[in-house]
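Key result, reporting period 2: structure in, sequence out.
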């Protein structure tokens, strides 16, 4: 049964008897009722007090029930109030017309009390459900707004987190770079020790030769002209001819060694350039040469592995707008990986081929080895962070991941590779010139 405290029912009929009968029937079941005897009055009441339901007679003086219903449905304030037509006309056309105007039901005169009450209760329940649905929709809209606000806040948090992550990734790049440099310290030290040792061992003989020459000259000055025979003997004892012949060679050797130290120093400085804040025009061949200089010691024969042949086929590349220090790290990583592959597979004639050329305003750098190649299973994971096939302590699993990030995200280029088991692996870097 409908709760009478929720609203009232408006009965509209020009017949006072019908109003009285319907009113009494509805009041007996606990429903509140108001009455109107014409369409105009009904519209005024509906606009001011908003009944829960309207029982509307069709045949009335002035505006009939059809017109009254049409006006109620045209008003946004009253269009949702359910209307049930009351009529003695049972023809289908009248019913279709009423339903097309927005009515929800028909009650045919003369009235059956129980039928009227049943129909009224059904539509009151539907009205309550509609209101509840409207309230839920309003509540849902409110929570949608709250959710949108939270999404915006969360998006802002994620944006901030992304910035932090990018900084962290950059730190990873630098850490990987330092890790690579740390692994190469022993090799660099080896490269520096040879020329430094040469210089150190040759300095002492050079001083002795100079001292001997000085003695010879002093003796000559003291003895000339009477001591010619003795002078000749002294010069012979000192082997001054050999000293004069060997001294330029010693100095030349020292000069070459010094130049080697200088070359290694420049390469190390170029490799370690810290220029991540802005792109600059750079010669990629210089970066490749710096990496090769630092890795030179690893190309030499070691144990059962013969020396690695290095083949360079450099094309005519213009300067590229890039971050040179980051690209040097990529070159270092790819060349070092090629050497690792050759050390593991031990081919009879190990070889690394480095090619560069210009294709459609892109600088192409290819680094290939003739090692054992990469299995299809490893190929699928090769660029994933922290994936490595090396033993613990030999690799972080970040090298190729960071290399791809540097090439593709920092330079809008592309890092790809091809590999065939037993034939080797080729990595290709494509960088836009500008």
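The corresponding designed sequence is given below.
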């Amino acid at each position: 049964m409908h709760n009478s405290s929720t609203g009232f029912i408006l009965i509209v009929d020009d017949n006072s008897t019908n109003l009285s009968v319907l009113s009494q029937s509805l009041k007996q079941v606990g429903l509140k009722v108001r009455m109107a005897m014409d369409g105009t009055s009904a519209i005024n009441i509906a606009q001011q007090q908003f009944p829960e339901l309207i029982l509307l007679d069709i045949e009335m003086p002035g505006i009939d029930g059809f017109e009254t219903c049409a006006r109620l449905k045209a008003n946004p304030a009253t269009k949702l109030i359910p209307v049930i037509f009351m009529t003695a006309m049972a023809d289908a056309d009248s019913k279709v017309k009423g339903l097309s105007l927005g009515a929800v039901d028909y009650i045919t005169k003369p009235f059956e009390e129980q039928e009227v009450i049943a129909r009224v209760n059904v539509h009151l329940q539907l009205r309550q459900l509609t209101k509840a649905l409207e309230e839920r929709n309003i509540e849902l809209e409110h929570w949608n707004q709250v959710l949108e606000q939270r999404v915006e806040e969360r998006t802002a948090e994620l944006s901030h987190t992304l910035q932090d992550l990018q900084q962290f990734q950059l730190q990873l790049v630098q850490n990987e770079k330092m890790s690579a440099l740390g692994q190469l310290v022993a090799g660099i030290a080896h490269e520096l020790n040879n020329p430094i040792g040469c210089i150190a061992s040759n300095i002492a003989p050079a001083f002795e030769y100079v001292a001997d020459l000085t003695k010879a000259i002093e003796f000559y000055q003291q003895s000339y002209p009477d001591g010619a025979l003795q002078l000749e003997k002294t010069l012979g004892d000192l082997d001054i001819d050999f000293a004069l012949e060997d001294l330029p060679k010693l100095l030349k050797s020292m000069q070459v060694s010094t130049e080697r130290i200088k070359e290694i120093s420049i390469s190390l400085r170029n490799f370690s350039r810290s220029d991540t804040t802005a792109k600059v025009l750079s010669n990629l061949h210089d970066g490749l040469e710096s990496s090769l200089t630092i890795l030179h010691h690893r190309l030499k024969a070691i144990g059962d592995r013969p020396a690695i042949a290095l083949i360079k086929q450099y094309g005519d590349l213009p300067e590229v707008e890039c971050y040179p220090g980051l690209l040097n790290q990529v070159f270092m990583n790819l060349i070092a990986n090629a050497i690792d592959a050759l050390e593991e597979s031990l081919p009879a004639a190990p070889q690394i081929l480095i090619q560069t050329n210009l294709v459609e305003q892109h600088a192409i750098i290819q680094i290939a080895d003739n090692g054992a190649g990469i299995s299809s299973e490893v190929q699928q994971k090769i660029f994933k962070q922290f994936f490595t096939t090396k033993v613990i302590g030999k690799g972080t699993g970040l090298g190729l991941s960071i290399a791809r990030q540097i090439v593709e995200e920092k330079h809008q280029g592309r890092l790809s590779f091809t590999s065939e088991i037993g034939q080797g692996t080729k990595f290709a870097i494509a960088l836009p010139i500008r």
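The radius of gyration is 49 Å. The CA atoms of residues 133 and 139 lie 10 Å apart. This case is discussed further under Risks and Mitigation.
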